[in-house]
Write a structure and sequence with these properties.
Shape: globular
Structural class: mainly alpha
Largest sheet: 2 strands, antiparallel
Number of helices: 17
Distance between the termini: 50 Å
Length: about 475
């Protein structure tokens, strides 16, 4: 009958152990006989409690020996304490005793594979957003600053944060924030964008200390899964929008035309040379050489096949990475081979498309401008250290120093959202086995952003996607 069938299914499920798909280590899984014994003891205790009318369940020796003494109750990082900076102090107390075990637990092959994967993920993001940042800020902040600051801040955050598994770097929201800040400075504080950013970083760090003193990070208990998913979706849409927008600009600069139209464009231009070395090699006088081709924007476009090749490279990178991700759950090859191809799908796709671009011959594609050595992107305008007072010829106004608190509040809210969403995800995954950094990490990130502002680097925050 129906009731008997449902009862049989329930009995079967009660005696079953279901593990979600994952790389389970056998030494962390109890033998099936021990699991069954624990369940039998629980059933016996449940029956005894029912027989006693729902009492306490007997004396202290009826637990069957399966529940060990767990010591003091586990701290709830989302609970406010009665001491100022109490959450920050508790984060430090619960995190740093586990500091040495992090290095010991990392001595295995799985950690090495994860490190290589995260390296390529962080590197590709830093290069991509560094190039976009250089375009948005007219090379005030470029790839060189993004790579170096991401490296330094990543090492510091991994060593001293409460949740070092969080990946930090430049993301879409902070990129849009810097773009809006640059446009405001262009109209209100011309040529003082980097100097004003220093004060934004200083005020952001001060705000983080004030919020940590009042333990404002406990407000994240009101975040729901809907909030996390919406924010992650927003960041993903920003990635997609920037990629399609860049491709659209390439099609505008290099439209699809007939070969005659390309030739007519260049035949109407004055002669130019690629470099002075080429001109000197001809044995002609160097007193009055023709202009360099790179100095005239008209000599840089339109180029044949550039738009089509750029589209192939963009969609090729996406589809290779996407299908390698799907391949991870397929039935081909071995389990380890599928996992490796799925985990490293993005760097594999990038390497393949770079080789395609390299083998394309004379077809022009836009390349990132990376200075040689440890140099800033635009050394003619700035150095590595940014003064908060401006320059001697163009000092920063006093009112601007205090007005920077307004964009600092917006930046802190952005860091608060991204960082704590990542914190909640990691706390759910790790079960807070080595503490949580709900209060510590946002203060540390704000301090790192103040450090980046003094060196003209981009804003750094937790990468939600």
């Amino acid at each position: 009958e129906k009731q008997e069938l449902l009862h049989a299914i329930n009995e079967f499920l009660d005696d079953s152990v279901v593990l979600p798909p994952g790389d389970w280590d056998r030494k962390h899984i109890l033998p099936i006989n021990e699991i069954m014994e624990m369940r039998q003891r629980r059933k016996a205790r449940k029956g005894q409690n029912d027989g006693d009318g729902g009492g306490d369940g007997g004396g202290p020796g009826d637990d069957g020996g399966d529940d060990k003494d767990k010591g003091p109750p586990k701290r709830n990082p989302m609970q406010r304490t009665s001491v100022p900076f109490g959450g920050l102090i508790d984060d430090i107390k619960n995190r740093y005793p586990q500091f040495l075990s992090d290095f010991k637990d990392g001595l295995n092959s799985q950690c090495l594979a994860a490190t290589i994967f995260i390296y390529f993920a962080a590197l590709s993001g830093a290069i991509a957003f560094g190039g976009i940042m250089g375009t948005k800020t007219e090379n005030d902040i470029g790839i060189s600053e993004t790579l170096i600051m991401t490296c330094i801040c990543g090492v510091i955050f991994a060593l001293f944060s409460g949740c070092p598994l969080i990946i930090i770097g430049t993301t879409g929201p902070v990129l849009l924030y810097d773009e809006a800040l640059f446009e405001f400075c262009r109209n209100t504080l011309p040529k003082q964008f980097l100097y004003w950013r220093v004060w934004v970083g200083i005020w952001t760090f001060i705000i983080s200390l004030v919020v940590a003193g009042f333990q404002g990070s406990t407000l994240v208990r009101f975040f729901t899964k809907f909030t996390k998913d919406i924010f992650a979706g927003l960041v993903s849409l920003l990635f997609i929008y920037e990629a399609l927008r860049k491709l659209f600009k390439i099609f505008q600069a290099h439209p699809l035309m007939g070969s005659v139209d390309y030739c007519n464009h260049y035949s109407s231009l004055a002669p130019c040379i690629k470099s002075l070395d080429d001109w000197n090699s001809t044995g002609t006088s160097t007193e009055d050489p023709p202009p360099l081709c790179g100095d005239n924007p008209e000599h840089q476009g339109p180029q044949p096949n550039t738009a089509l090749l750029s589209m192939i490279l963009m969609f090729g990178t996406f589809f290779i990475a996407y299908f390698l991700r799907i391949f991870r759950n397929s039935q081909f090859l071995g389990r380890n081979a599928r996992r490796a191809l799925g985990d490293f799908g993005v760097p594999i796709a990038i390497v393949i498309m770079v080789l395609v671009d390299y083998s394309s011959g004379d077809t022009y594609t836009e390349k990132l401008s990376v200075p040689a050595g440890l140099q800033v992107t635009n050394s003619a305008v700035r150095g590595w250290l940014i003064s908060p007072l401006g320059t001697d010829t163009s000092p920063l106004a006093v009112w601007a120093m205090f007005a920077a608190i307004l964009p600092a509040i917006l930046l802190y809210l952005l860091l608060f959202m991204e960082t704590h969403i990542c914190e909640l995800i990691m706390m759910e995954k790790t079960k807070e086995e080595k503490g949580a950094g709900l209060h510590l990490d946002i203060v540390l990130l704000s301090g790192l952003n103040m450090f980046c502002a003094f060196f003209g680097g981009p804003w750094i925050c937790a990468a939600t996607v």
